[in-house]
Amino acid sequence: MRKLSVLVVAVMALLSLVVGTASASSDLSSGPNVLINPAIAAEGAVKTYAISPQALSCGAGNMCAWPVSDGSSSRCSWGSADPDWQLGSIRCSWSSSRAVWAVANNGQSTAYAGVCLYAGANYGNWQIWVRRGFGVEGAPGVRIRSHRWVSGTTC
């Protein structure tokens, strides 16, 4: 029982590094790389990483999403905001039936700090924010329908 308690404390400490709330921040030189809506905070392992050649493949300037945590199949990618992944100009074929399990924000514009992903069309029901230049595997684990780049950490 003691080992289980230690494990729970360790997991909670790790999650506190990546799970937060969407709040405004004027200084983005430090702080989280990923913010997950506390209502859907991942129960499993969440891995964040800086975009690199070894990371999930996502072209420069794009935000990419996958229905699998290892990025092995079915990538959807956008170079700009999309208010509706199912009916917009770029359609993500699996988004109506499968959850997003990996996200890479390879946006290049310094005007934007991160990208927000939403469960609803037209930017409704915020789920996760990912800092520019970073990715996350193992989250958010929900169906996503829209996204947009933002200048701070507020979705």
Q: Based on helices, strands and strand pairing, what is the structural class?
A: mainly beta
Helical content stands at 10-25%
Q: What is the N-to-C succession of helices and strands?
A: HEEEEEEEEE
Radius of gyration in whole Å, from Cα?
15 Å
Our count of helices gives 1
Main sheet attributes: strand count, strand direction, barrel closure = 5 strands, antiparallel
| Mean residue pLDDT | 77
Number of strands: 9
End-to-end separation: 40 Å
**Which sequence of strands runs across the widest sheet?**
2-8-5-3-4
Can you put this structure into words, describing what you see?
The chain is mainly β and 155 residues long. 11% of the residues lie in helices and 32% in strands. It has one helix and nine strands. It has one helix spanning 2-18; strands at residues 34-36, 47-50, 63-66, 76-78, 100-105, 114-120, 124-131, 134-142, 146-150. The strands form two sheets. Strands 2-8-5-3-4 form a five-stranded antiparallel β-sheet, with no helix packed on it. It is globular, with a radius of gyration of 15 Å. Residues 1-27 have low confidence and may be disordered.
